[in-house]
Amino acid sequence: MSLPNGAYEALANALGAENVCDDPAVTSGYSYMWLAYATHAQSGRYRPAAVALPGSTQDVQTIILLANRYGFNYIPVGTNLFPPNMPTRPDTIIIDPKRMNRILEIDTESMYAVVEPYVTYAQLQAETMQKGLTLTVCEGGAQCSVIANNMFQGMGGTGHKFGYNRGILGCDWVLPNGELLKIGSRGNARGDWFWGDCAGLNLKGLLRGDSGHCGGLGMVTAMAVKLFPYPGPKAFPVKGANPDFSAEFPADRFKVNLIKFPNREQLIDAMYEIGHAEIGVAVHEEPASMVLAGESPSVEHFWEHWPEFKKKWVNVLSVTLLGFSSARQVAYEQKVLDAIVSDTGGEYITEDSELWSCAACNLGEQFRTGGSNRLFRIAGDFFVMGGFGFDSLDQSLKMSKEYMWPLILDGIEKGHLAPDDVGNDWLNSYQLGHFAETEPLIYFEHDLAAGGAFMNGYVGTIIEAVKRKMTSSWPLGPMNYITGPAMCNYHELVKKIKSALDPRLTSNPGFPVPPEPPQA
Amino acid sequence: MSTQAPAMVDYQKPLDDVPYAEQRAARAAHHGEVKKRLESIAGPDRVSDSPDILARYSSDLSLEQAGRPAFVVRPQDTARVCELVRFANSLKMPVIALSSGTHLYGAGLARLGGMVLDLSEWKNIHAVSQRNRSVRIAPGVTYDQLQDALEPQGLRALIPLLPRRDQSVLSAHLEAQPMLIPEFNYSEPVYTAEIVLASGEIFRTGAAAVAPPDQTANDMVGPWGPGLDWNRLLTRSQGTLGVITWANIMAEPLPLRQKIYFTPAPAIEPLLGFTSRVQKKWLGYECFILNRANLACILARSPQEIDALQQSLPAFVQVFCIGGLARFPDERIAWQEADFLETSQECGLTPRTVLAEFPRAARFFEKNLHRCFPGEVYWKDARRGASADIFFITTMNRVPLFIEEMQQQAALAGYNFQDIGIYVQPIENGRAAHLEFSLPYNPADERGCTRMRGLHEAASRALFAQGALFTRAYGTWTQLAHGCNAAQQQTARLIKELLDPNNIMNPGRLGL
Amino acid sequence: MSLEKYRWDLVNCERCSMCKWQHPWSVKSRERAMVCPSLRKYHFDSYSAQGRFDLARGLLEGEFELTDRALEVIYACTLCGACDVTCKFTRDMEPLEILHELRKLCVEKGKGPLPGHMPAVDSIRKNHNPWLQPAARRGHWARKMSVKDLNKEKAEVLYFAGCTYSYNANLQQVARSTLRILQQAGIDVGILGSNESCCASPIVKVGMQDLFQEHAAKNIEMFNGLGIKTIVTSCAGCYGVLQSQYPAVGKMNFEIKHSMEYFDELVQDGRLKFTKDVPLKVTWHDPCHSGRGGEPQDLWEGTRVRWGLSDPPRERNFGSKGVFDAPRRVLEAIPGIELVEMERIREFSWCCGAGGGVKSAYPEFAVETARERVREACATGAEALVTSCPWCEANLLDGINAEGAALEMLSLVELIERAAGT
User: In terms of domains, do B398 and B418 share one?
Assistant: First the structure.
């Protein structure tokens, strides 16, 4: 946890002493990540050597140039939720963008906003809603960084209509050599933000992918993101008080439908039909555990209600309709949905039912994720047992049933995972059902045994997928050595790109792919 | 170390060289050996070095400098492509893959010689999935062919404005040509693709990576990864990263019924505002704006009719199509129509189902909106025989500024602005716009061509200076774009070098 | 180490960062989304509940020592409890209790309180108030008033003025006005005069648990002996500590009300009438200790078992059941008053910046935080910022002055008096 001689002083001189700190009281705040305990004990040995607070793109360039000069590593973060931000080498600093928290521009005509890395979805959407625009807010919660999430995958509730992983327009990207690369229209004569593509090789392709470069190829310091029309109130229509909030959107333009199916196959058929009819703005299978967690103010409440609730909430599809143009759109889409539900054997959960009241926050959650972190509540920790493997709706179901749920049931039987054996996933339709992904949610305690079981299970889903020639779950860092050889050796190309752009391997060294395969 | 000064060096002494006759013989022998090897890979009837065939591939419809390949090879399958590329790589011989019949922008010209891989005969439509709205196609598949295959399954292809009949669907998507439907969810239409890299190895993108199509358990519609976003990297790469051998692309629901509206206006500004509003309401399918010069070229039955027809047409027309899908098609059309017409009233415009000045337009677009241009002479060539196009991405609100700039440039060059076709294609629900100027010229008139080259370059520079975003790096535009984004070019070079260390894949394109 | 009680919380925080912001649905702008003053000022994650959890875990596990920087991380926090509210929406954790525990740890280790806190602490020990004033002068604020002396007489209600309203010449008027209104409404009310003693909030806030226990126990014993039904206080700090900390010290045979609640009841039942028009556009600042801190705490002792269930089951304090509606109802009842709300209100209220010993140890941070609140108030277009807490009033006034804002700082009772025509 130390930097090479002279490095700390150089950072302090460049950024101001108040913007760099190596005291463990401060660095410990960056030492502990979601899921990271799964591979190591809860230990402060993963504290960064220091934390730096740049205030501008130039500051970030300076930090990266100093890292190259003095030979230390750095990890750029956003709001810092995800495990790849964990320093695993002693001479690593965290670049925390807290001071880079501005919304630089909102263009209502061309529907984009330009943000710095410490702007959250809630902040940005609060501003864009005032101007009749919105964006897909990530499932990690609206308290997450817009830039970090877009670089990771840009997933969100309204992905059925607003797309997945397609939010990035112009960017300012500080490369691992300290050069400023301007992506898309930022590179034109006026330095515009409005478009993500440019002449020549489209290097935006290096920013995004199935899980992005995770800070392994420098730091994006400003990004224009796509916005979409939003016909709702200027302020998020929240009602209630902590811990029970509801959202009251105008009923003629916003409508959520909860539909129960006899089995998941019919539910998937309905999702296909919804996609073919091009209706809806958010379309998800929603598992019982997620819904009950969403309405549980405490872990006690969850487990008290779980035994009964899990019997009732099975194979439920949530479909949100939105009238972009007028109430006529909602009326038409509802009629189409009614026909689809009838044709596919679904049954609406009615608004006067007990189940409906359990999902009261559903509509609001589609637009601004507020309660997704309640999934932590169920057992202390959660993730997905595989999932995210992007292909068709049919494939999502197939992966889930064929090898993800058997692994989950095994984990439950061994006592590592909380007893959610319903067999439903958070299964999402993206871009009008053109493709999909599934997330079988699992809940487990925060200890090494459960964490190990989760990690082995997750890796197990990758191994199973590759064996069956199906799309695998996201492989992060070293897991790329499992998928790579089975998938056109892409990991070798990614490694080459990493070493071409970051020859000293100073930018989050183990990502996107570590230089060597993991040790046994 | 010797302390003695060297003896006098004869710097003028000629180097020993092989006699010229031997050189010629060696060259011919080398050519013959290469040809023989190519023939052994692709088959003797699939390799050509005859001057007339090479000449056909040496120039295209652009004003770009000609480039003559050494060989034209028409391989039958991917395995042979791999072997050909591997062989080319061993010789550092350029490889230029082509899939369309007609080439427009100089991107397929063998600037540094080498081997053209002509895949335009690869017309296989490998698989159509109605359920997943996908179709996997070979590079030579053309639009009418694809529409014919999709329509019986209730699907349609995403199509640019009245393409040429030999336009490759795959290359249109890989070049990110704007499609007529600005629907956001249609606008990155490549799900997955297979590419033969410079090493001769096969790489597949997205959900196709895990196994070849005949072995995969996937539906190959997941576009992301593996690892990074290869689809994005390949888009508009002009064959500089490899040879695409198939792509699985989006096919969209075919409307059972459609209703087309024409909204005329004496100037473009009100139409731009109207179009933006309609797009933000997420209404309709096809939506674009044409000026009277373009409309006349499209609608005239013969080149002779063009001028007169142009005089009679409105200055600008927005073409807007509403489609009714399988479920309640009429009701779908009805609510969208009501909202569309309400919006037009708010904008003070009057859409009509019939273009009063030319009633036949309705039938033409009804019939051809999903099809290639039906005329014998392509509409862009109809006025003078060829068209030099300038197109780029901008925002809807800046379109008038560029039109004004183009007008000034035309005036400076003494070119009749009234002849210039203007096409505005909103992209992603109006987030941006493709703006295209078509400048007709006579390709047989050498002086005219020179003047056109001058105008094209001057106008491109002027438009670029105003913020035109040339996303497709052809000719001058490559240098313009790279001139103000050095880090982009340096980084692109690094990527190119590691994927194609011998720079054999369409060398020189994209400034690489 | 009592942090051990919170081990489950410390190791289960997965840094979702909800503690740093208002609940996402309540966010109305970029500018005012954050809810933690400390993080806003110091930027490093360590200055948030999440980072302090990490610090606490590291200290618990002996990974590092209490450095000077650690003391700053621990004490440069107003203990406003906003993180406690936002964390609890998603997690079953107790950030505010953990922040208190960290301070207790500093005291245990001989590192706390900070030098800046010591004059107040010593003064409480010596004078029973933190303001270095003689105890004998405590009741002087009411010397010109006719009021029952509960040292000698009985009454239903004890008006507990608190140290600041008792001694601060600029704020004594609040105590007098409150007492006057209660008397005029016919309430049987008295005071303790010079025998009133500090509620000990400043002591517990800096981590001196033993001293607090001693002080609070004495107070409880005295209060219980008065035969009163209710203690009414105008000080949010006193109210908060009496509500949330005293029950753990000893049983109390009386109820505790903030004067805002009492005024509200008087208005509702018609004993307090407003006869004068007060044409003023005002905005209301919810004091932390009467707002989210005004909700009673469950004095839970237990363990976390499988899946993190609490055994025995714990009732959580979500911070939304504090005194929020009463002052708003009172303001709305005053003719001519137009109440406009700030962005961060009720359980998500932005702290004034004075609490948790910050005003004495980190005065610049305190004023900076107040300035942020003043800017927020100005953005509503209000002419006056109204509250009912002496710490908030004093610090927000500093903020108004530092900001040069055209905003009047008022106590709720001042408006009541104007409207009641007393």
Answer: yes
